[in-house]
Amino acid sequence: MTEKTHKKGRQAAGGIALIIIGLIALGAQFIDTDWIGLLFLPVLGLIFLAWGAVTRESGLFIPGGILSGIGVGSLLITGPFQNAGGEMEGGIFMFAFAAGWVLIPLLSVIFTNERHWWALIPAAVFAFIGAGLVFGGALLTSLELIGRFWPVVLIFIGVYILLRRGVAES
User: Fold this and answer.
1) How far, CA to CA in Å, does 56 sit from each of 7, 53, 114, 157?
2) In angstroms, what CA-CA distances link 54 with 51, 67, 104, 108, 134?
3) For the chain, percent of residues with pLDDT exceeding 90
4) 35, 74, 84, 141: which is deepest, by most CB within 10 A?
5) Taking residues 126-145, what's their average pLDDT?
């Protein structure tokens, strides 16, 4: 693919994305329903994901995955899981959000030569939080302890950096 063809593909994808966003926003003004607003984030996420796939730009998978995860999570807790209860709903949302983060490295491997493995770190964190909220018990206790003592990890890392660099000895 030449640079000129690649540029035209990016411009076309951007134009199509704007048209779809505009159609959703316009439709939301004339259609009197609550669910159309809930579709905005997942559709916007899908636009970014499709745009990234078509143009083979891995950077577009980042907002696409995040927006898709938030949007699907919102749809799930206002739809089929709306009566699941506070912590269960929070856990379901966090699982959907984690899945959105997993899309980033998955799609970058499929559609580009770039690797975004770093996105698996927040995915794992959000999935662990979701599991703690859904299953409770020891997982929830672990989350509470982590929430209380995570600054200690920063302190240890800071001390390690100072000792390693010899700053503390000077």
Assistant:
1) 11, 5, 10, 37
2) 5, 18, 15, 12, 37
3) 39
4) 74
5) 87
Tokens of 49: 């994901």
Residues 41-55: tens digit of each pLDDT: 898 899 899 989 988
Q: Does the predicted TM-score (pTM) go above 0.70?
A: yes
CA neighbours closer than 13 Å in the CB half-sphere of residue 4? 0
Distance separating alpha carbons of residues 127 and 96, to the nearest angstrom: 8
Answer whether 46's CB lies under 8 Å from 61's CB: no
- Other Cβ atoms closer than 10 A to 124: 13
The whole-chain average pLDDT of the chain stands at 85
Q: Among all chains, which residue has been given the structure tokens 């690649």? A: 6
Contact in structure between 99 and 45 (CB atoms under 8 Å):
no
CB neighbours of 57 closer than 8 A, spacing ≥ 6?
A: 10, 51, 112
The helix-helix angle for 35-55 and 3-30 (nearest 10°) equals 170
CA distance 59 to 46: 14
Q: Are 107 and 53 in contact (CB under 8 A)?
A: yes
